[in-house]
Amino acid sequence: MSGPIQNRRVLSGMRPTGQLHLGNYHGALKNWIELQYQYECFFFIADWHALTTGYHDTSQLEEFVWTMTIDWLAAGVNPGVATLFIQSRVPEHAELHLLLSMITPLGWLERVPSYKDQQEQLADRDLSTYGFLGYPLLQSADILLYRPQYVPVGEDQVAHVEITREVARRFNHIYGREPEFEQKVEKAIKSLGSRNATAYRTLRKEYQEKGAAESLKKARALVESNARLTVADRDRLFGFIEGAGIAVLPEPEVLLTATPKVPGLDGRKMSKSYGNTIGLREDTDSVVRKLRAMQTDPARVRRTDPGDPDKCPVWQLHRIYSSEETQAWVQKGCRSAGIGCLDCKAPLIEKIVEEIGAISKRAQEFEESPELVRGIIAQGVERAREAARDTLDVVRQAVGMNYR
Ligand code: TRP
Ligand code: SF4
Question: Which structural domain, as residue segments, surrounds residue 87?
Fold first, then answer.
């Protein structure tokens, strides 16, 4: 069975920055792996984004692209259900970015928090470039090109999805005209059946006259729940609630999932820039060495000092990896000084070594068949381009550039 509801899309991407670590795995990838079985998922490697801050040295870019592809596959991203591709192999991203750049006020880009933040953080690079300023808009194009309903991202990317919504709204406002829109909308409303049609009209009126957000939500839900509508009619009905046009580019929503914060070896958030990571394919000796040396509750100096798991990053890892039983053992043993920190780390080390071992083994298989990996990407690129071309057809027509 297929219909608009079943076809809901999810889109997300990552910059190729080298080997992924446990923070990326628990913070993003595991979530993707679940989503791929619930939605039509598009996951891409944002290689153009890598250039926005790393244009001066691209010597490792290609290596990083393939490493990340293999990390995804080894972690369980399934090319049989999800579409995996490389951004620059789908040039439609660039075309949509260009069209959106025409309608995006500079101020919107200058106001994105990461613009100033990153310039300060990466002070050794010259980031006063056109590409860097435009990077959130490139991200908007990445997203809108696939007209997804959801964009699963971390906290740090929420502002980018927010500007994406603003850009979509502006685009729809300027270009959301369709020949004979009114007649088509009337037909679509009738196809809801008389009861729902009346409800739809009432909710729209409430929203338009009083701006009632609740009515907007209800009207959208009503449209959503009708599985027999075509995608185009659904978009028309969405557009009509808010104005008199079609939502050519529907506004996507952030999908913020309760992902655990993975602590790094020093207790700060695990991040490549802090150098406190455990790699997804790191060898066992190194994983063991790093975990044995990992920061614990600083107040627990001697073996006989009781500790407090709430002040210990190792406990955060137990929360991700350990059974309730083990967790209870940690709590009790730590607070009573009944166990030492190395005792405490032992079951964790075992779990993590096992997890990384399994991922490394699968990664090895992909490393040994580069043809297979290239084939997966080639197929993903094809599928992505098909979806991207569909959107651009509608976009070009809306802008008035669909010359024949
Ligand atoms: N900007 C994201 C990051 O740095 C990567 C990214 C690019 C992305 N385009 C995207 C994420 C579109 C989600 C959707 O992590
Ligand atoms: Fe941390 Fe465990 Fe040591 Fe307690 S016993 S301080 S939880 S490592």
Answer: 6-176+252-260+370-399
